[in-house]
Every structure is written in structure tokens, then in C-alpha cells.
Amino acid sequence: xxxxxxxxxxxxxxxxxxxxxxxxxxxxxxxxxxxxxxxxxxxxxxxxxxxxxxxxxxxxxxxxxxxxxxxxxxxxxxxxxxxxxxxxxxxxxxxxxxxxxxxxxxxxxxxxxxxxxxxxxxxxxxxxxxxxxxxxxxxxxxxxxxxxxxxxxxxxxxxxxxxxxxxxxxxxxxxxxxxxxxxxxxxxxxxxxxxxxxxxxxxxxxxxxxxxxxxxxxxxxxxxxxxxxxxxxxxxxxxxxxxxxxxxxxxxxxxxxxxxxxxxxxxxxxxxxx
Length: 274
Fold this sequence. Notes:
This protein has eight helices and twelve strands. It is of the alpha+beta class.
């Protein structure tokens, strides 16, 4: 018998940044391999409970056609004989959210929608988890990834999955926002099996931001003669002549750009590597 994905998730977007994403936690192995789906310019989908994985690609295809979140939910569930056991969250290209909870989903189960998001969960301690997901997303500041992570942590603090924790996932997409500008996947982090998956997801996101994030150019440091000499000395001790070569070996190549200024994250990591 199929095991239910006892889950709470939030599907959301930041239209100003052109980002869509999903954050999810569950007492289920590798929840990130089933629940979250997103495509820039189209929308995002979370499929859970006795999940129908086809809701992901099929939902994105409908969103790509310009259908609203409500219409996508309607189309997917009406065509599915197992709809009573499904749970689904969708955010469309306009930032409208829709959520669906089948009548046979295990208590507590339900969802909420608001501007730019849909939050839902099943087999939860109580509805306070979904309330916390929604309220935290509405109040949180920062990037979409940061707001999704804050919502996930708040949901757990409010009770979370009644069976406990096991895995968590964060997916955020933006057109050409991924590695080297050649991918639409801005963030794709998964904790497949961990006693505290949300905390581990926060740790991974901080590492991801260190390696692939962007410091605003007005916060970059001018490379004067003194700093240039320091950089050259540190590089020489590490066996490098050029900063970009060391940055590439340290997986910081996304933060490099010329030699007149330096990203403070790069400088900090160079100093730490001695």
C-alpha cells in the first residue's frame, strides 16, 4: 500500500524578482524527490498526501498555458480517481494561489492561500502549522528562499508533522538565475534523512549562499595597493598566481569579477584558507 506523504509545504512566488519556489518538510524519506515542482514564468506546484507525482509536470504544463492556479487544481483533481486522498498547492504566473485537500486525507489536513502563496499540510499536530506557514511568509523579509525557510521553521515550531521529522527540501527557480546564468534553478537543496532536517536545510542554504550568492556591488571592496599585496601574498602561500584560479578551486567562481574590486565573501574565505 502506498505510504502517505505526511507533509507540510508552502508554494510561493516573488513576482518582482521573477522567482517561484516550494519549501517542504515531511516524515518521509527524500520528500524533495516527490513534492516540489517549479518553472520560472509559469508557477509552482506541491503534490502530497498520497501524492500523485504526475501533478508536478502536468500542473506545470497547464500553468505554462496560462491557466490560473484554481483552474489547474480543478483540472488535475477532476481527472484523478484518487483525488480524495490527494493534497495539492499551486501558485500561478500572476501570483495567485490555490490549495486542495481531499476528503480522505488524514487529520489534521487543510490549507490556506494568500497573496503569492499557498500553504498546506496533512497528518499535522493541528491547523496551527499551516497558520504559521502563512503568517510567517506574509511577515518575513528577504529573498524568496529566506522567506520560505522561515515559514518552514515556523510551521515546525507550531507543531509540524504529527509523526515527526525526516526530510526537507527547498526549490527556487528564476529565469537564467542558476549556475553561470545557464540554468533556471536558483536553489535546489534537499535533506533526505535527518533528525532535524529543517535546521540542516538552513545550514545548507547558508553554504549555498556563500558559494553562489551575490553581494551587491556597492558593498564590494576596492583593491588598493595594500590589499592587492595582501591578496598576492596569500595566493602565493596557497600556490596560486591569480585570484580567479584560487576562487575556482574554492568553488567561489560565481563571486569573481575583475581585479579592481573584490567581493568581501571571497576575501574572507581567502583569509580563512591560510
